[in-house]
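Q: Fold this one first, please.
A: Sequence and structure below.
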Amino acid sequence: MPKARIEMSDGLPVAIIQRFDRSDKGRIPFISAQTMLDAPTATGGTYVSLADTIRQHTASPHEEMHALFRRVGFSILVSNVDDHLKNHGFLYAGNGKWRLSPAFDVNPAPERFRELKTAIADPADPSSSIALLMDHSFCFEIDPDKAAQIVGSMAKTIQMNWRVLAHEAGMSRAEVGDYRLAFEHEEAKYAARAVAPTVVAPGLEPQAADTAKGSMQRQPRKDIAAATPQAQSDNVADGFDPSP
């Protein structure tokens, strides 16, 4: 994430965000994910397609696909429903290759219907689902156990820290209460349970126990009903408020 802070202007909060498309040497070329995918619109794309593009066009595809997986998981856990393709981007890394830009425009929205603007795998199914993301972890070159560890760790970190960070950002008790459901919901609970201690039954070898645990983590969800359902300027970062 780029460095950011909140300033008050005439009684209204204003986000001041450090530009990430600048360096001491000048401008760093930036393109949106919509441009990278050559998509006609900012909605209707999938993260699986974006992972395939990362595999082809980035300097460190393994690391970038893992980073994308984490961002999708984070969006689900904080109820970000503004994750369209213009809100993902790439910075030029040289030699004809790109890298993911820092994350931006992540907007928790407790009062809105929980679905993603960029679907995980099927444009017709924009479910904001941790289970669906984990089912497709192989598309990001992440094995199921590692995927469970990632989402479980993120869920627990968010639960332990979101209220403290909200108060530090200047939110009132009432405002924190208004945003509670953006962070405390069934998907977050499911993710926090994703990594459970392995219990080895009598006579079950450790290797078999690991296999059983992986199988359990890939079981379909039964507790949550599945949700159903201008070309972008390459310089979208120009819309950011620069740091003073």
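Q: Good. Now the second chain.
A: Here it is, same layout.
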Amino acid sequence: MTDPGRPAQHPGEQVPASPSGAVPDNTSGAVPVNASGAVPVNASGAVPVDASGAVPVDASSATAAGEPVAPEQAVQATSASIKRMQRFTAANMVRSLLPLIVICLILVVFPTLRQNASDPVREVDPTSSERATAELAGYPLLVPRGLPDAWRPTSVRTNAGSASAGDPVTLQIGWFTPEEEYASYVVSDDPRDPALDDVLAGATDAGTAEIDGETWQRRTTDRGETALTRADEGATLLVTGSAGDEELTALAASLEPYAP
């Protein structure tokens, strides 16, 4: 009895069988037929098969699931891929980066705009550095107190943040003075600290000065500036800068024991 699901075999036609005796099938599970509904044969009258023994399938007429792909669908898929590639243009990249660029400009420009163009001096707060030095130093810390507002602190440095207990500790503070000069105060128990050594190494003696009941050694630095220095309970104090003697004397006289 003829299988209604398989095309009729014409007399004289031979369909090669696989080792199991079945007609080779393709991956879709069905033998391809031609327009008349018959299995296509070659010149010898046999159904052509590939090297694996299966009936070949036209790859352009089927998908991986055995469903045909319409030409219109293939064109649409190609067009979508092209559109995705066109979106990755230089202009689109610039537009995507524009918000980040604007944020960076705001962070850089805004602080600059807040500064007074006629006053380029940037003040700092030495409070935290003074506290850190006082907590770690092995000597009683003296710091300037009571200076007029016209004395504007512009720099501060301490190594207390990286020092361990028992290590030498240095504090250095700089001011923009009322006479628009620079004055610096240094206190350290390390005589080789650059803040001290760079000033005093080549300085020459220039007598002494009595300031607020304390005797200071007066020296002249290699740059011709005045340096006032004295020892206090294991620490060396230094007042120097381009400021005149009057302002340097006022700075030395303002020193008091640190109090939180």
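Q: Anything worth noting on the second one?
A: The domain at 127-257 is CATH 3.30.200.100 (Phosphorylase Kinase; domain 1).
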